[in-house]
């Protein structure tokens, strides 16, 4: 599906809609301040965790140019590793993206590392983003967001095409799983040094079966 109309960026000097007011309105989680402070602020006010729920706020850690963190609202949980979110100011300054996918690429399956849909290219973003976790709203109901000039200029992007989204997230999940398997340390081979010394001291004319039989017999005698 094409984007909803032309993608326009805020004019020079104009402010763009930020992720914080958008997430606060849509989720009902009444926290203010930069996105990177939401996780700590929520500690005494809301339940927090590492499992997605509809209406929960996914909080991102600062990373690279994203120095203030990021917040997004879960609109639907697809399975253990995939969900849909609504958020603002991610792919394009001030842009609102609704019901776009996020995949969990963490080794532990705890949503501590995710990849996020990039609407302009209609693909999963290549960057892996670290997160704090989820802040749970009092209700799973998502509230509508109406453009408000007081919150900054914005443009609404179309929901991702379902078929393309399915193919892309499946491919991304498989790619991440392959990378994770490759990064795991190789199994360590534990050698029985008694057997090695015995074999080294044994004439090479003997067969391997004879050597193994002698080692087993020696072990029983011990």
From TrEMBL:
Domain of life of the native organism: Bacteria
Pfam families attached to this UniProt entry: CHAP (PF05257)
Domain spans labelled Peptidase C51: 1-115
Name this protein carries in UniProt: Peptidase C51 domain-containing protein
Organism for this UniProt entry: Sphingobium vermicomposti
């Amino acid at each position: 599906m094409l984007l909803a109309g032309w993608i326009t960026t805020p004019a020079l000097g104009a402010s763009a809609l930020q992720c914080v007011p958008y997430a606060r309105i849509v989720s009902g989680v009444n926290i203010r301040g930069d996105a990177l402070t939401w996780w700590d602020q929520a500690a005494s006010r809301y339940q927090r965790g590492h499992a997605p729920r509809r209406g929960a706020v996914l909080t991102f850690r600062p990373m690279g140019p994203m120095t203030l963190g990021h917040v997004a609202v879960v609109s639907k949980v697809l399975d253990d590793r995939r969900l849909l979110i609504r958020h603002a100011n991610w792919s394009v300054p001030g842009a609102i993206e609704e019901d776009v996918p996020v995949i969990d690429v963490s080794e532990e399956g705890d949503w501590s590392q995710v990849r996020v849909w990039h609407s302009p290219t209609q693909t999963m973003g290549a960057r892996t983003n670290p997160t704090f976790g989820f802040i749970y709203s009092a209700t799973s109901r998502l509230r509508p967001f109406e453009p408000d000039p007081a919150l900054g200029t914005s443009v609404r992007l179309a929901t991702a095409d379902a078929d393309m989204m399915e193919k892309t997230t499946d491919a991304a999940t498989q790619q991440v799983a392959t990378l994770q398997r490759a990064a795991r340390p190789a199994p360590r081979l534990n050698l029985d040094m008694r057997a090695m010394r015995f074999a080294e001291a044994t004439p090479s004319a003997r067969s391997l079966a004879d050597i193994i039989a002698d080692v087993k017999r020696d072990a029983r005698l011990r």
